[in-house]
Amino acid sequence: MIIKNARIFSPDFTFVPGELSFEGEILTDKGSGQVWDVQGMMIIPGLIDLHFHGCVGYDFCDGTKEAFQAIAEYQARNGVTGIAPASMTLPEETLIRVFQNASDFQWDKGAVFCGINMEGPFFSKEKKGAQNPAYLKEPDIALYRRLQKAASGKIKLVDIAPELAGAEKFIAEVSGEAVVSLAHTTADYDTAMQAFAAGASHVTHLFNAMPPFTHRAPGVVGAAADAGANVELICDGIHIADSVIRAVYKLFGGEHVILISDSMMAVGLEDGLYSLGGQPVQVTGNRALLKDGTIAGSATNLFDCMRHTVACGIPLESAVRSATYNPAAELGVLDQMGTLEPGKFANFVIMDDDLKIHAVYIRGQKI
């Protein structure tokens, strides 16, 4: 197939006029067969969400075929063609069941499964956020190994509070096989820098569940900037003020920002009472709160987060990179997706100047 008269997001992160061709599942240099004139609309790589929990009434940690399928299909309909769902702080036996089921599931419809983001249980009680404090643990390499075995090696990110006992040893040993991210932490600047020196390279939902960034105590945020770490940002209009979004892009540069949704099961549904990690969550609009007022994930999908990022003043090119190339590189799937280059999956979104989706393709199939 050939899609012509488009503005295509190129591998150098600019939009260029041209055409996009694919045969079967794969993008090609030259196409054949059907021709579609999109009359100047934009084509971008499918978005990749490496940190979200659920949508349309399902949570990744439900661990069922029905949940996995509903999640993959919802994401696909909304322009997210690659996913790395996140777990929660739960009992080991629950996580083993979820990870094993996710590894065994045939992810052949909807968004492409890129791996698992292991969020918890190695977190600080003081910054637990919506994580269940009953199951928090100090870093445990043996536990991680058991979970990674259950996941058949599909854990791509593992989150940790670096101030906990044994954290530095854990980071040094695990960082060679998964991205280690600082999260749900009380760490100061020096502790965070030691963690980055040991092999951590990522920060989970920047600013949330960590000490604030101040002029005398820069904390994890300042350390991440000095270490050149990649940082997640939830741009849903709730978690991060628009001014701070603009400041993060100035401080880190577009090459280090990864847009995430951190969405929970209420996304795609009406307001009401839902759950996250076994705890009740009240959702009103796109705000999700625990009973004590703690923000519990988001109620916004990644494409809407990207739209909000652009609306608050970030150039479209930077926002698209942060939702496509950057997460693909972090998950180690850049050889398959993240850019529109021959040989990669035909995963892409056709959208207009208002960032309204007109079509989504995954592995060459129109969704």
From TrEMBL:
If you read the UniProt record, what top EC class would you report for this enzyme, in one word?
A: hydrolase
Kindly give the Gene3D superfamilies that the UniProt entry links to this protein. Metal-dependent hydrolases, Urease, subunit C, domain 1
- EC? 3.5.1.25
Provide the alphabetized UniProt keywords.
Answer: Carbohydrate metabolism, Hydrolase, Metal-binding
* Organism domain of life: Bacteria
* UniProt-listed InterPro entries: Amidohydro-rel, GlcNAc_6-P_deAcase, Metal-dep_hydrolase_composite, Metal_Hydrolase
What binding details are noted for the cofactor? Binds 1 divalent metal cation per subunit.
The alphabetized list of GO BP terms reads:
N-acetylglucosamine catabolic process
Cofactor(s) needed, names only, are: a divalent metal cation
Instruction: Summarize where substrate binds, as residue positions.
Output: A130, N208, A209, R216, H239, I295, A296, G297
Query: What Pfam families does the entry give?
Result: Amidohydro_1
User: Which residues are named in the active-site annotation?
Assistant: D262
Q: Does the keyword Cell membrane apply?
A: no
The answer to whether keyword Metal-binding applies is yes
Task: List the GO molecular function terms.
Answer: metal ion binding; N-acetylglucosamine-6-phosphate deacetylase activity
Q: Which residues bind Zn(2+)?
A: E119, H184, H205
**Chain ranges of the Amidohydrolase-related domain:** 42-365
Q: Which PANTHER family does UniProt cross-reference here?
A: N-ACETYLGLUCOSAMINE-6-PHOSPHATE DEACETYLASE (PTHR11113:SF14)
Q: Which family does it belong to?
A: Belongs to the metallo-dependent hydrolases superfamily. NagA family.
Give the protein name, as stated in the record. N-acetylglucosamine-6-phosphate deacetylase
Species whose genome carries this gene: Ructibacterium gallinarum
Q: Which gene encodes it?
A: nagA
